[in-house]
Design goal:
heterodimer, A: 316 residues, 68% helix, B: 171 residues, 14% strand
Chain lengths: 316, 171
Amino acid sequence: MSTGQYWLVIGGVLFVILNTAAGLIWLERRALALWQDRYGPNRAGPFGLFIVLADTIKLFFKEDWIPPFADKIVFVFAPAVVVASVLMSFTIIPFAPNVMVADLNIGLLFFLAMSSMGVYSIVLGGWASNNKYALLGAMRGASQMISYEVFMGLSLMGVVVLSGTFNLREIVEAQRGGWYILPQLIGFFIFLVAGIAETHRLPFDIPEAESELVAGFHSEYSGMKFGMFFIGEYMGITLISSMVVTLYFGGWLGPAFLPPVIWFVLKTFVFIMLFILLRASMPRPRYDQLMEYGWKILFPLSLLNLMVTAAIKLLL
Amino acid sequence: MFSLLRSMWLVFLHMFHKRETYQYPEHKAPIPARWRGRIALTRDPDGGERCVGCYLCAAACPVDCISLQATEAEDGRRYPLFFRINFSRCIFCGFCEEACPTYAIQLLPDFEMAEYNRQNLVYEKEDLLINSQGKYPGYNYYRVAGMSIQGKDKGEAEHEEPPVDIKSLLP
């Protein structure tokens, strides 16, 4: 790729991702309303689409308050971490045959590293807020993300064993014969659950848990700093959805009557809707149930999945 | 596990259910006839004010939003000199309607009284009086009460016996 094309891809990816995250505000509210027999925002603009604009303007003009008891530097720094780490993860996702920012040969490891970085934002934000609820949320967030990180990585290793590479472009190419959803059904399921926990979305929104902890780690945040956490969460949904598509549903592969990018976007969209449907239908588990579920069921299951996959790969 | 998938499917099916929302300004929700909304002062069948200025509504009001001053007309009828309801305080509990002995004060099924200026929520008597008998058509306090006013002496009201002469021994 020439330098011009390179910058075009970077700018395009950034533009699309940020706008998707903003659009998800509208999409989530409309979809939740759809599943709760309501209409959702439908007044501002066509289908209420301008609610995104209104929300953004509102966030910008809200008082950006830093509590006097907070650790100011860390408090300001924390929301940026989540956005930065998620945006970094998008560099390694192949949107189409030649549309990816960085063709890393350790792309999958980079994704895992960056998604783990997101936990810093929660812990630092909760700690710097100097608030009981924020700290409780941060503690929960840290333990949840660290324990779900373990088998998130392990569940991905099944895909790595099958394709023999960490490079996401090559993983997609390796799925020409058949998507990995069939041989890696358990791996897919574990990755999806871990991914939901990783983006701390409902039903695994234990760090936020607005019915128990006010708003968890971002109780003290307001204005655009809160908006950063908000946007980070929506970008996290997009990231996990596109990772699921890349690893298990053949990424941009699809019948030739649609261009590869469209296939990728369509598949990702299905999983974004699944995330929203999960939020609409699931109750939040208790904290200890979440941990038990992770360590006692999903962790052994992912190890088993990895061993069986490796054994079959070795024998065949 | 199965129950989780089942609940997700059931929630998904809600997509095809009827919406519960009323698109308010265009479609208004049906309001029951006894809805407690805007307070009004009703009139009797002859078009006169029903309110006799007894202060019972003001006494019953839990938020003290009613203020009035009773006075008497030349023909002996009592009426409020001014009658003021502060709707920025009113909680639409309907206690005033229950307390009113002459069915004058009534709550109507109307709630669209938003104002940009808070002061505009203070309704004076002219704003409160409506040209209707409200929920009790045909009721006229002075026609059924034993109180004497000009043109109607004691004992001349409907269903009223003439007054007993307590000084007389005749039956």
